[in-house]
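Extended Data, panel c. Modelled sequence:
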Amino acid sequence: MTVAPPPIVVACGAATDPGLRRALNEDSHIAAAPVFLVADGMGGHHAGEVASATVIDEFAQLVGRPSVALAEVRATLGRARQRVHALPAGDGASAGTTLSGVVVCDVDGTAYWLTLNVGDSRTYRFFEGELEQLSVDHTVVQELVAAGTLTVAAARTDSRRNVITRAIGADSESETDYWLVPAEQGDRILVCSDGLPDELEDDAIAAILGSVADPQEAATRLVHEAMLKGGRDNITAVVADAVTVHGSDGSRALDRTVPPAAPIEPPTDDDLDEDTRPRAMTGGARR
């Protein structure tokens, strides 16, 4: 029996480092077809690293398939949420994590990057020299930028830049954003925790993605350069290259479906991680 090729043949690489100011790396990641994700744990003494590892462990069950449908991704995320919420006291209870990345998807014979995001980890696409951020940050400053009350430049140094409005866990039931991005041969996807863009401007990220051909070398270089710029937080980079795309129709359109934000309950621990902090939302209204 002939086995159909995967919609996207991917070459990938990944690198991670706790950074220069953190003893513990709360980032977790997976870079194995068809799943390329980064989770950035939060919660300080509530063991954010357990929450992020729990989510990635659930998605690891999808590795080895040629592609994954949206319904399967939603179901996997649902199980991951349940596992994080069920973490016992002293082993991740009340901790949370972000999640961002892509999963290879086939829709009616066309290859897509199924992109998902909750929190402030990021997913980018680099194609023909252009860097495009696919995900939308779920942060207070991003809301202000979208409202036109804060500039992008000012957002980089704003004291609220790491206060997130959605998370997995942390007593949250936040919605996840999903996008279907038509894949093309030559696509380079970058998934990273916020420790990378906090140190490197988009131009610097694009320069590395455009000049380092091997995805593993590119991921390692990105983390290294972020360390040189300060390495103030955990830093993780996953680079996934579309080597071959089957069934592409040549479209570059981006199908965005952005559900509304859901409430996040206020944290209860005085020692909550200062690098990534969920903020309270009351009655679903943004404060």
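Residues 249-287 have pLDDT under 50 and may be disordered. This feature is highlighted in the accompanying rendering.
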